[in-house]
Amino acid sequence: MANTPVVAVGRPDDLGWRHVTINDHPAGKVRSMGELRRLVRGAGLVSGYEIHWIGEDCTGWPDRPWYRRIVGTLMAAGLLATACMLIVIGMKDVFGALTYSGRITGIIFLLAAGLEIIAALAAFDYWHERKVAYSGIIILIGASVSLAVGLLMLLMQIIDGMAYTNYVPFWVIFTMLSVAALCILVRDRAWEAIPNPKPIVAGAIISALLAIPNVTYTQIYVPYATSPIVNSAASFGKPSLNGDRTKMYLPVHLSVKNSGQVPVYVLGSIYWVHGWIPVAKQQPAFTLIHDGEFIRPPGQSLNPGEEFSEDEVIEIENPRAYKYEKVEVRAELYAIRKDRMAIVGDYARSVKTLKRLKEEGKDQDPRGPNGQPYFRYQADISNSNEILNATRGRQRVTLWYVKTPDWPYIYVVVEPPGERVDFNVSNASRNDKAIDRYGLERIRSSMQQKPFAELMETAGSEPSTGASPTPTE
Length: 473
Fold this sequence. Notes:
19 strands; six-stranded antiparallel beta sheet; alpha+beta
């Protein structure tokens, strides 16, 4: 009996492994009776040996290979999927975010993606052999990051109006998988292999507490802290008459200046010249003399300190036949913040007339007001960073120039592509989201009025050169 080999099989650990020794020398570890037989045969023992069972007998094989493989695969897949999403968002923001803070957030997302990849690799070790003592805590941290990302994105979508995007199912799945993974890891006490896990856990929690406020600050507070200041003015120049005094040429000076610190896009502009005719016992009536765009092409950017001006010449046929008491010039434009969005595509060349829209079958979307003719500009827009693109989805800006007889007007709507939009300018809350998100602003210029008799007198006192200035068409 003294020379009989002794095979000792220890009690199973958390992963189902049972350590095996032969004559008090470590021989390996097994998870099943079949693995034990192969191990013993590999050591050169065929028969005539004793087996000592420690803690559990020959039926104590708690390993569930299918459970390990399914759980480990799902954890690794969830962590890798989170890493892919973080890489997509992070790369786009690092190279394409409109603000410095947005690019820093992109770098943070790329670092988080690297952590998720490491955690996915640790999942294979943790659910197979556990050769790395830190694999459990690494998965725990990775699952926590995945949960934080999913909750942050869902929270931003709730705050931003519950817009549905293609990313929403991913955020929901990531969140659910992360919660399930954390429950399993906490139940299995994944941190037990580390002698002193408290500093690591504390460091991870502190990093998360610092990162979440940073993202919140850069993505929500900073974009709304500064307001743009855009001023516009409209005024008359010195009028003149042609040689036979049958036409008046009335110059109009129009200008717009960015007096603030925020760059803007000028989406469209309009100016009006009206003549006022007194009507007895009623409010004075007005007649549209001329209207038009004065910022061409539309969609131009206006950086802080920049100014744009235009001089137009209005031609008034047979001015002495009109009974105007006074004439008035004013202008209006729509501006949108350049630090919160970017126009995608050629907005200036996107103009389509009502005739063209009818040919394309799009003249009923929206329906023109009272059948008045109009033309429109339209282009997709991108948010200031990919995080907002992921939570808001695609957006599109459309500007209509509507030619009504007395008061032509411009009207802007920002909506996701494919949504039908109203042509209801009386709906004051129509653009509340665009105003809040992108700083869409309707800017009215200063207005100037002059007595028509004074203009005629000034024009008559000007010496005629026989040449006529180029009128505005």
